Amino acid sequence: MEKQKLIRITTVPLSLDKLLSGQLRFMSAHYEVIAVAAEKEYLEKIGAKEEVRTFHLEMSRKITPIADLLAVIRLYFFLRNEKPFIVHSHTPKAGIVGMLAAKWAGVPHRLHTVAGLPLLEAKGFKRKLLEFVEKVTYACATKVYPNSTGLKNIIIENKYCALAKLNVIAQGSSNGIDTTFFNPDLFSIEQNLLLKEKCRLTEEHFVFIFVGRLVKDKGINEMVEAFQTVHKTHNQTRLLLVGDYEADLDPLSPKTLEAIENNEAIVAVGFQNDVRPYFAIANALIFPSYREGFPNVVMQAGAMNLPCIVSDINGCNEIIQEDVNGTIIPVKNTDAIVDKMQLLVKNTNHYSVLQSNARKMILSRYDQKVVWEAILYEYHLLK
């Protein structure tokens, strides 16, 4: 029997690679899967890795109305030709382009996953524009999947979408976590020591790690300021930053950039294809983001046995339970970050309790196969 076609769309292939890793290959056992994204060369690499077809569609994460309209038209003709059973989009730009084109092309099942709402930090006209785009995306979709209960509540409160369309799959997350891959036991003491030496770290250091884009919306300005305060009284602390800047979209303050550049206790290693070795040499994750959907980084850190300090936002406050596997702080609150950093450094018993719970809580709730099977079940309900 010929497989029905499933098209998965993200704005850039990095999202397919990092946020949905392995899922397309899993789904290809049940559907003919086609991956759609920008950046043709990278997309083709993802297609080879996941063993699925690809279709290159140039899109940008910026607001580019003319280019976006051209993308909708090109995707429309592609969908008319392919006649998929399901189009499933992720990320805001791929959502509006994918859902509009799929609706115009008569695709019967148009699914959109909401993994974050950038509009929450926007103001004025930009906020109104982004809200309008979000409402159009949801209106064109037949099902909308917020990847956390908190996001679902925000969508309901703001009346962005009809309640009947909304559903949180499993306990949240777009892809779950491969806990066999994110496993601290895969890294030997010798490997960890070598990487520590490379990063100017020693066994005496208490290492806070941040993994993600180094941008304002991730709370980097507050985090760096807090760390510098903590380091004055706890000079054994270090801050390890794993990720790239986005100076054109969401720049950090000059003060923060200067601190990262000049403070020897802050180690910035840039973007890394494999973040696991860096988790393996850290003691705790600090993740003071302003907004998230369902952050993979927090699940990854937990699977690598790290307690987490996270902001009180949807997703984060669902993965982390206060004083069980981490601690939750108010958004944009430097003093709270200082207090919780100091608590983990000074109170070794408290730290040990959090660490002992970190991995097992991820194993029990967010293992990848559980999430994949739940998404597949959702597909199978479609007629």
Would you mind describing this structure in some detail?
By secondary structure, the chain is α/β, with parallel strands linked by helices. The protein has 16 helices and twelve strands. It has a six-stranded parallel sheet, sandwiched between helices. Strands 9-8-7-10-11-12 form a six-stranded parallel sheet, sandwiched between helices. Helix 12 (296-303) packs across helix 15. The radius of gyration is 21 Å and the shape is globular. The two termini are 17 Å apart.
Keywords:
single chain; 383 residues; alpha/beta; 16 helices; 46% helix
List the helices and strands and how they pair.
Blueprint: E1 5-9, H1 13-19, H2 23-27, E2 32-37, H3 40-50, E3 53-56, H4 65-82, E4 86-90, H5 92-104, E5 109-114, H6 124-140, E6 143-146, H7 149-157, H8 189-198, E7 206-211, H9 220-233, E8 237-242, H10 254-262, E9 266-268, H11 276-280, E10 284-287, H12 296-303, E11 308-311, H13 316-319, E12 326-329, H14 334-346, H15 348-366, H16 368-380
Main beta-sheet strand count, sense and barrel state: 6 strands, parallel
Give the beta-strand count. Answer: 12
Spell the H/E element sequence: EHHEHEHEHEHEHHEHEHEHEHEHEHHH
What portion of the residues fall into strands of 2 or more residues? 5-15%
End-to-end C-alpha gap: 17 Å
Give the neighbour order of strands across the main sheet: 3-2-1-4-5-6
Report mean pLDDT, rounded to a whole number: 95
Number of helices, counting only DSSP H or I runs of 4 residues or more: 16
Quick summary of this structure?
This protein has 16 helices and twelve strands. The protein has 383 residues and is an alpha/beta fold.
